[in-house]
Structure formats: structure tokens, C-alpha cells
Amino acid sequence: MLAEAVALKPEAWGAGFRAQRPAVSAPGTVAVLDEECRWERRALPGSVLASLSRYSRLPATGTKGELKVTAAVTVHATVLDADEQLAATLEEPLRCREQQVRTDERISGLMSAATPFGQGNNTFADDQVVEIGSYITEDSEQTYLWYVTRLGTVTVAVSVKGATGYSKDELNQYASHANVGMLNRVEFELGGKS
Predict the structure, then answer these.
(1) Which of 35, 128, 135, 139 sits 20 to 30 Å CA-CA off 106?
(2) Fold for the domain defined by 2-189
(3) pTM for this one?
(4) Is residue 115 a contact partner of residue 106, using CB atoms and an 8 Å limit?
């Protein structure tokens, strides 16, 4: 299955990463931001052929807190369906400036920007949306990054929930590395690169 081959497992993020609990999203579901600005998983709509999220973490050590990351892949029925996901992603921060991720986690102050192919530094994908905001838990407020990138009918998404002791540059490196890694896997799986 394409989504399983592309979504990064913990070791692909780097040394020391482990699976979160749960480690993988429920089969046959896709992540949706509901009317109350809460993230939940719903049954795949007709426009989505497959979707998979893998949740990983880098345990806290010394002066650094626990870093949580997500790698998600969605295979759409058509390019238009995939394009509509990116358009919705771009608009979601306008509708929901604050979003509930899990019962004890939320993201706030979100801003989004789109970079279609040929604009900015985007020479690698058909389209990309980047969201930046704050990741808030009971005892911490950190940087939050979310990259959603489209290649044909496939969208890959990477989220990085910052932790104590990590700079924005470090978080961006994790997000960029994961994003490029998944895009390369998409191209390989679709026969674009050998």
C-alpha cells in the first residue's frame, strides 16, 4: 500500500525516535478538523483512497523535552481532490485560530502560507502549505510546525510539536528532512525515481 510505504516510521526521523501510543492511525480513517475546531478521525470519504498517520517521539534527555512528530500520507482519487485538501488546509487557520489536537494538547495562533510549484523555493512539489503556531500543553507553550505537500494525487503531511531546548531551526530541520524523505518515497513508489 502506497501510504504505508511512504509514511515515516520512527527510525526514519533520526536516531533515538520511538513510536508514540498509539503509533498508527485507525485503518480506514482520515484526520478531519470538525466544526468545533477539534481534530478527529472519520471514515474515509469517497474522494480519499487511503490515509495513514504515524506518530513518533524523541524522548526527553538532559535539558531537552520530549519531541512529538507525525508523518501522514493521504492518497486521493483525483488531483482536484488532493488540491482541495491543500486549499482547506490553507483556510483552516482562518476558521480555527485555536485547534484541539488531543484532550491535553492544542495549537494556537496559527498562520498559514502556500507555495505553489515555481514560487519561492518550491521546485520539488506541485503545491505546499506551511502552518506555524504555538503548541500548548498543561505546562508548556512551544513552536508548532505543519507542512502539507502535494505531488499529483498524493499529499504528505509532517507535524512537529516543539519541546523545551529545541530551537526553531532544529524543528524546521526535522520537518524539512521528513517532508523531503516522504516526497522521495512517493516519487519512487510511483515510478518517478529509481
Answers:
(1) 128
(2) Protein Transport Mog1p; Chain A (3.40.1000)
(3) 0.92
(4) no
